[in-house]
Amino acid sequence: MRGPAEALPHEIARKQREAATEQPRESAPCPRAGGAAGAGGAGNGRAARLAFRIAFALLAVAALFRLILLLRGWPSLDSDEAVVGLMARHILHNGEYPNFFWGQFYLGTLQAYFAAGIFAVFGSSLFALRLPVLLLVLGFFVAVYALGRAAYGRVVGLLALAWLAFGPPYALIRELVADGGHQEMLLLAAVLLLGVWDRLRRPDARPTNRRGWLRLLAIYAGLGFAAGLGLWSDLLILPVLLVSGVALVAGRTREVFSRCGLALVLGFCLGAFPLLQFNLTNNNATFAQIEEQRSLPGQGHALPPLDQWQRQIGETLAVAIPITYGSPRVCVSQGNVWNWYPPTLIRELPSVSACQGANILFSLGILGVYLSALWALLLALRLWLRTLPARGTALRGWFARRGLLRAGPTGSTGSTGPTGSTGPTETAPAAVPALDREVAARLWLRAMLLGIALFTLAAYTLSSDAQINQFTAVRYLIPLYLTVPLLFGQLWRWAVPVGHWLTDRVGLAGATSSAATAGAASRKSIGAWVAMAAIALLLSLNLAGATVTLAYSGDANRFGLPTTSDDQRLIAFLDAHGITRYYSDYWTCYRIAFESNERILCAIRGQNGEPQLHLINNRYPPYERLLAGTPHPAYILPAGTPVDRGFADFAAQEGLPHDGYIRAQVGDFAIYYHP
Asked: What is the per-residue pLDDT across 597-612, written as a single tens digit (0 to 9) for each?
């Protein structure tokens, strides 16, 4: 069975034959009576139309599935998401224009501005808050399909889209809550990758007229703007910016170091202006806050000690990667777990267990596929360099001098010739560069996806959150969802014999399958069946996770619109007793403020059940000042906790009013109020 690298020279040879007859790979040429070219073009046209219909159907199913979850109120609202809704409301009604999520200087507010526009039309509600998020996610799915198709072909694009359409459950949570810049970051990152790939495959010729220059400058300005806007939205886009920048500089050096580079920088500065302006005037507050959060208290250096790093790598393998890729059962030994996650899919354990061992094997399997993609890219690079004309480049000479390449005949590619025989092929000098650019652009796209995966995982293992907040910190791995086409692309390459047999029968293979694919189709090896089983397993796990999530979302006691039954009872009690100002913990305060349309406001005292009533985690200073001027604020505390049992003592320690207060309990809330 030939691997992806081995198939590459045949692909180049096929492209040369297509160029010679002026027949594009996936276009449908004019029919020729009795001609093979006409039949091939028709087959490709049918396959392309079928792929489009399947992609559209998957997108529609993904949208419908998520709409059902949203209409059931899953996930339920929390204070992080409520802050975005409150910012949107203040943008619309109070004339506030925040640059960052309240209290967090590394998440942009693009979602809040989107939501403000929706609120202006449909009114303020949880569903309206999440509607623009859903649209961003669907746009991301379209971009992932395009990435898969560009990197490996239409089948891989469909596989990546199918996998994302139903999950995994953790991804569903991140896709449906408006809690920061994650969703728009993913969409902008995918658009940036597609833009760089498209630029790399274009002719490397400077425009000859003013219109051409303006178009080229606009393209570079657009790439820069997408990069800057993505960086402002969420700093998790940094690996994407790094790999796309390297690819653009290496593949389009002349353009980048010209006026196009200036347009790129100006576009970036415009997109990232809120981030740049804030940090220039606030002494790099964004990066200082990130460094403070990613390290353990007292850790005075950027890198963790070796023993701590080893533990963080272990938890990444045991928990983070399995959750990210939809393991059917994950086990967490430290940190909180969101109650939106289906409880049948997760266990909280005090220490290492067989469950974690199984998940480590799951992670190693995922990482093995990515590392094999790296090896295939290195082999493909070597073979691709060997196909360059002997008039070649300094890069080819550098490899040849170090014995990494064997010299070939001058002007030959060493590929399959037009007649199908193997041997030197004389190539038209004008045709080779265009063909090489398209293949090189595909290789660069795969390399960019691989770089995103490796950089994201490496950065995650360096963060103390990998060990301390094993479940909730997995959100920092969401850039891995950009690399799903690489995961399925590599598996599909291994599964070529079986995969070609299947796609040929449903009409997706078309008539222009590569020589390697066609030759391997008759040799259905054990490895090909294993790869196909891995693809089926990944898709099945997501489908099973989606089914469990859908069933869990139907729990009316936990989820519901416009809010949960517990919050409805709490708000009704507060309204009945005329309570409009209170102190509580973070996870109650902003949630109730949004759900009550801010007629009930709060400030934060105490957190996580700790026995104290200190001011802490207040994200919006005007609320804090409002409560400071309230003579008899109420207190909403977790019922049965030490701070509830010792309320009077803790209030006295802080000098807070508490004499004459009455205690009432509503669900899990203990409410202290002045009659």
From this structure: 999 999 999 876 678 9
Cα→Cα distances 63→273, 347, 489, 609, 632, Å: 33, 29, 24, 38, 47
Helices (H), 123-252: 126-151, 154-165, 169-176, 182-200, 210-233, 238-251
Q: Is 363 helix (H, G, I), strand (E, B) or coil?
A: helix
What average pLDDT does the segment 195-222 reach? 91
Q: What is the DSSP letter of 604?
A: E
Name which residue leads in pLDDT, 336 or 522: 336
d(CA 548, CA 624): 41
Task: Identify the DSSP state of 108.
Answer: B
Which DSSP symbol is given to 205? -
Nearest to 518, CA basis, from 502, 497, 491: 497
Q: Which of 176-185, 378-387, 426-435, 589-598 has the highest mean pLDDT?
A: 589-598
Q: What is the CA radius of gyration of the chain?
A: 28
Block residue for tokens 């949203």: 70
Query: How many separate domains does the chain show?
Result: 1
What is the span of the domain harbouring residue 634? 565-673
Q: Per DSSP, what are the bridge partners of residue 330?
A: 346
In a domain, 367, yes or no: no
Distance CA 185, CA 177 (A): 14
Calpha distance 17→427 (Å, rounded): 10
Q: Are 394 and 250 in contact (CB under 8 A)?
A: no
3-class secondary structure per residue, 295-358: CCCCCCCCCCCHHHHHHHHHHHHHHHHHHHCCCCCEEECCCCCCCCCCHHHEEECCCCCHHHHH
Does some domain include residue 667?
Answer: yes
606 CB burial (10 A radius; 0-12, 13-18, 19+): buried
Q: Which phi and psi (to 5°) does residue 95 adopt?
A: 70, 25
Work out whether the CA dihedral 182, 183, 184, 189 comes out positive or negative: positive
592/664 Cα distance (integer angstroms): 18
More confidently predicted of 392 and 651: 651
pTM, entire model: 0.86
pLDDT of residue 235: 92
485 part of a folded domain: no
By DSSP bridging, strand 634-638 and strand 581-584 are: parallel
pLDDT tens-digit series, residues 514-553: 444 444 444 458 888 899 999 999 999 999 999 999 999 9
Amino acid at site 232: W
The mean per-residue pLDDT over the stretch 48-68 comes to: 94
Sheet holding 601-604, edge to edge: 601-604, 581-584, 634-638, 669-673, 662-666
Tell me which H or E stretch contains 662.
Answer: strand 662-666
Q: Is residue 29 part of a domain?
A: no
C-alpha neighbours within 13 Å on the C-beta side of residue 316: 23
User: 275, 388, 305: which is closest to 8 by C-alpha?
Assistant: 388
Q: How confident is the model at residue 167 (pLDDT cuts 50, 70, 90)?
A: confident
